[in-house]
Amino acid sequence: MFAILIALLMGAVLPLAFSPFNLYSLAFISPAVLLYQWQHSTPRQAFAKGMFFGLGFFGAGVSWVYISIHHYGNAAPLVAGLITFAMICFLSLGPATQGYVLVRVFNKNNPLTFCLAAFPATWVIWEWLRSLPLNGFPWLFLGYTQLATPLRGYAALFGVYGISLLVALISGGLVIICQRQFKNIKIWTLCILIILFVIGWTLTGKHWTKASGNPLPVTIVQANIEQSVKWKPGEFEKIVQTYQNLTQGHWQKSRLIIWPEASLPVFPQQIPKLLQQINQTALSNNSTLMLGILLGNPQQGTYYNGIMLLGNNQGQYKKRHLVPFGEYTPLKKIFSFLIHYWQIPMSDFSAGPAIANLLTVENIKIAPFICYEIAYPGEVLKYSAGSNLIVNISDDSWFGKSVASVQQAEMTRLRALETGRFVLLGANTGVTGVVDPQGAFASLLPLYHSGTLDTQVTPMQGKTPLMIWGYIPLIVIIFLLLLGSVNVTEKLRRVFPYWWRR
Prior knowledge:
The chain is of the alpha/beta class. It has helices at 2-13, 26-39, 43-61, 65-72, 77-105, 111-130, 155-177, 183-203, 227-230, 236-247, 272-284, 332-335, 377-383, 404-419, 465-469, 472-495, 497-501; strands at residues 210-211, 216-222, 256-258, 288-297, 302-311, 315-318, 359-361, 364-370, 389-394, 423-427, 433-435, 441-444, 451-457, 460-461. The strands form three sheets. A six-stranded mixed beta sheet has the order 6-5-4-3-2-13. It starts with a helix and ends with a helix.
């Protein structure tokens, strides 16, 4: 029981390694303690410890989903709590299964391969599985914790998964170093860890992309409209007035103005005169407005969470990665009964086309993403390959004043590092700001306040190694780690029996 409580505690403290707490050293310590426990467990015990680790990790890290289900979905507290707990249990099956497989398949008595190969490889596989469409929750990857360390230098080479691999490898190294036996292995392990940090530090100074053209004057609007009033028809005129008041005075000096996700929570065909007026204002000021709006035809049962361009440049984008149980119901025949327990507005969206065109503003190619689409590393890499700039609009007021918005902003910083591009964040309540190609905030608005952010962003050209090769090098590395974990260890024991025993 004590070991189970330790696993639960280690999982519960791990979210402190992420934003806004940024205690990044916990990203090494917490998995290391779990790995040490697995090293002294049977497969069933490893499953149980992994399960409780996951309950602590996701229970402390993403329980903010309760807010959207209860406060804005109008579900009863008990129902919202049960749904949240069920989601946390489902996500916890990841570390539970990892622990079982790790102990069952690999030789835990061989620390070199168990801690430095099998453990980091299976950890990354678990994270990758969480990014698949059906699971749809690519949150709290270990790699996001290292934005303040030299390991961020690997982002342009291997992405967030690669950094997660290194963090897990370092955790495995700590387990080896802290054990009494295997003196020679300790020395080599310490050398490997030092080399990893030195290489990462060197890579942080590398610029993989370069400026292309003149800076673009941009204004990002943060209206701070409460979710509880946003979808009420009687509040629409006030919402429009809020955005117009905040935007007034910026038309002439900005070539691009950004309103957040679903800033106008209606369909274009419902407000043709208003859109015509806004379009004319933008045109007369030689500017472009990018706004979040609903697209499609609700009468035909097909509608999208979208983006529309008005003014100098025209275009549309339809969100492709939808939030499970928030924007659509996966496996409707099985889970349709859940819809009766909460009423989230517009919760039956259709997904946009898998292949979408980039938006163009002032001859600058923009890759747009809505809300947590930015959390899918592979999708962002694929879609932003031909872009000069990335824009992410969102409305995190669904999750109240929780850590959800800053966790998403943390992921956005990694996307900037992976692609070597500026990323503009436009959110209803925040985080609203500009992330530079080095993953740092160039400018930022305070959370939960209305206001505007005037800035200039430089379009970028070129590709990072990750954009060129994708995850192929990382997949090869993981394959070799797993292959070596199964085969190499016993050969080493036979060839160097004396060295291995020391």
